[in-house]
UniProtKB/TrEMBL annotation:
Entry protein name: Nitroreductase domain-containing protein
Signal sequence, start to end: none
Bias (Low complexity) ranges: 1-12
Region of interest called Disordered, as start-end residue ranges on this chain: 1-20
An example Gene Ontology molecular-function term: oxidoreductase activity
Record InterPro entries: Nitroreductase, Nitroreductase-like
Ranges where the Nitroreductase domain occurs: 98-251
Gene source species: Salix koriyanagi
């Protein structure tokens, strides 16, 4: 079963297709329920970490030509010859004029989205960090560019894999120069995103699929924000199925892998396959809406099987273990950082200090940038129109339940951010009757934030997030609650990973907003699913918690030394 395929462009009355759809949804629900954490037991995973077989975080294509990209200063320089990045908060108002496709602009796109941002070292251990976050810093996400010819890179249109350790492109194939102009606007190109599930399964077992799709969402947001720096917009091409995505990125080289009926351990390198998740079209901001002829595009991609693909994927582990698949936004709190400074200095906090507080207006400002339709437009929150949510092709399906701990001027308690106001009446009906559902004091008129109950939520936030202090020691923490089973039935099982993508995009905004106001954040993948629902009074599967997050003052570990991202050490950590 693959869940990357999009819905058919035509409606079918075939009863067998309807039955297949319901079977897929049943499989999705079975997996989702099977991989929940409970107070009494956790989802299945390794009992310890097999360090000898820790997956290499860097995919390389052996024998593919390596095409180095350019590097950029993190801080804006007064030197007129340097490439300055726009201020972070300015991107939410308007984008700069579009840059042409060049070695410099493509280099900057990857540098500010998926590149290494630093190395860390302590004792005998050294590991890399990236601009895009990842569950457990395991980085299952890979990226590919499908581009027209670029001077000093390739003399014809091409497909290349991005190698973050080298900040280089690995040329995989040359493609017809007519391919992109036949379907997309002038000066457009594609970014493909794939996942290596094994990297997450090595540590997290059967819950890995969830975390990989969180990371896809983080990557989509990271690419969207880096593109915005260059005056480019991004849209998800959601009319392509698994085979088209596989063909476009040249991932058909991987042997088929069948998930076993029971957990097994041994040497089976086919588990290191890359699952093609999605393709994004990157195009100049200001281009009017354009329609993609998916039927003709699919036919053209099928011809990619006849291309001369170069390079074989490196091996990531010696042995493997497999799990069976059963208003106007306020800018007063921003520090004047450029977008690149925020993006490349983003870090995942390992601990929160339990002391740092933020002002109420700062909290509201962060929430306003979490809205899918943007703030100040008068638009009812539903459609995903704001940066970076507009890269997604569906209406918002993910909300946020917030545990407010340390926000000056805002009572401690439980709050709810409604990101699709069509769901508001249903949410009021299915949650606890005693919830207030009142706008808090000073809340902007166009911010659909509601106070549910007052009280100290630190202990319950900690308990729900697998007893982790980080959920209680920040300024606030939250759970991302998706409109779940109705979405699967109305749109199809293919929406299951996409709901996790949406949580990842929202999480990336929270990361960057936190750093923009001078604090930090981190995603929390370990939480007790149904106890979260019990706190809210939710029954059944109409709404499900998919991802948790915390925002606050970080505790810095002085034992760990930071090193520059490039040139890095020779290790593959």
């Amino acid at each position: 079963m693959s869940l990357s395929s999009s819905p058919s462009q035509s409606v079918s009355n075939n009863p067998n297709e309807h039955k297949d759809t319901e079977n897929l949804i049943a499989q999705v629900l079975k997996y989702h329920n099977q991989t929940k954490h409970f107070f009494t037991n956790y989802a299945r995973g390794p009992r310890g970490l097999d360090w000898a077989n820790q997956p290499n975080p860097f995919r390389r294509y052996v024998s593919s030509p390596l095409l180095p990209l350019l590097h950029f200063p993190v801080e804006n320089s007064q030197d007129s010859t340097s490439v300055s990045a726009p201020l972070y908060h300015s991107l939410f108002k308007s984008l700069p004029s579009p840059k042409p496709i060049s070695k410099s602009s493509v280099s900057q796109l990857f540098y500010d989205s998926l590149a290494l941002s630093a190395w860390k070292t302590t004792g005998f251990s050294t590991w890399s960090l990236r601009a895009n976050p990842s569950s457990g810093n395991l980085h299952p996400t890979e990226a590919y560019i499908i581009s027209p010819a670029i001077d000093s890179v390739c003399d014809s249109a091409f497909v290349a894999h991005y190698a973050p350790k080298e900040h280089s492109l690995e040329l995989r194939a040359k493609i017809p120069d007519t391919f992109l102009p036949s379907f997309f606007p002038s000066n457009a190109f594609l970014i493909g995103v794939s996942s290596i599930f094994w990297r997450e399964a090595w540590k997290y077992g059967e819950r890995a699929f969830r975390y990989c799709n969180h990371d896809v969402g983080h990557a989509i947001a990271a690419i969207s924000l880096a593109a915005a720096e260059l005056g480019w917009d991004v849209k998800l091409l959601d009319g392509l199925g698994f085979k088209e995505l596989e063909g476009l990125m040249g991932l058909g080289i991987y042997q088929g892998f069948r998930i076993p009926d029971k957990p097994i351990k041994g040497k089976f390198p086919e588990i290191e396959f890359e699952h093609p998740d999605c393709v994004l079209v990157v195009f100049p901001n200001g281009v009017n809406d354009f329609n993609v002829n998916y039927k003709e595009l699919s036919s053209a991609i099928m011809e990619f099987g006849n291309l001369e693909w170069v390079g074989n994927p490196n091996s990531l582990s010696k042995e493997h273990a497999c799990w069976d698949n059963s208003g106007v936004c306020s800018e007063g709190s921003y520090k004047g950082f450029s977008a690149r400074e925020i993006i490349r200095k983003r870090r995942s906090a390992a601990h929160m200090d339990g002391v740092t507080k933020i002002e109420r207006d700062t909290f509201y400002q962060i929430m306003l940038h979490c809205l899918p339709s943007g703030c100040g437009s008068g638009e009812k929150q539903k459609r995903q129109l704001a940066l970076p949510f507009r890269a997604l092709s569906w209406d918002a399906e993910v909300h946020a339940v917030l545990f407010v701990h340390r926000v000056v001027g805002l009572s401690k308690g439980l709050y709810f951010l409604v990101r699709n106001e069509d769901h508001l009446d249903e949410l009021k009906k299915v949650t606890r009757a005693e919830f207030k559902w009142e706008k808090p004091e000073g809340c902007p008129a166009d911010l659909p934030l509601y106070e549910l109950a007052r009280g100290d939520c630190q202990q319950i936030a900690k308990q729900l997030s697998c007893h982790q202090d980080i959920a209680s020691d920040g300024c606030f923490s939250l759970g991302m609650v998706a409109h779940f089973e109705p979405t699967l039935h109305s749109k199809g099982a293919w929406m299951y990973p996409r709901l996790f993508w949406e949580t990842g995009v929202l999480g990336q905004v929270l990361y960057l907003e936190a750093h923009a106001v001078g604090i930090s954040a981190t995603g929390i993948g370990c939480f007790f699913d149904d106890p979260v629902h019990e706190i809210l009074g939710l029954r059944g599967s109409n709404f499900q918690s998919l991802y948790h997050f915390t925002v606050g003052g970080p505790v810095l570990d002085k034992r760990i030394m930071s090193l520059p991202a490039y040139p890095g050490p020779s290790t593959d950590a």
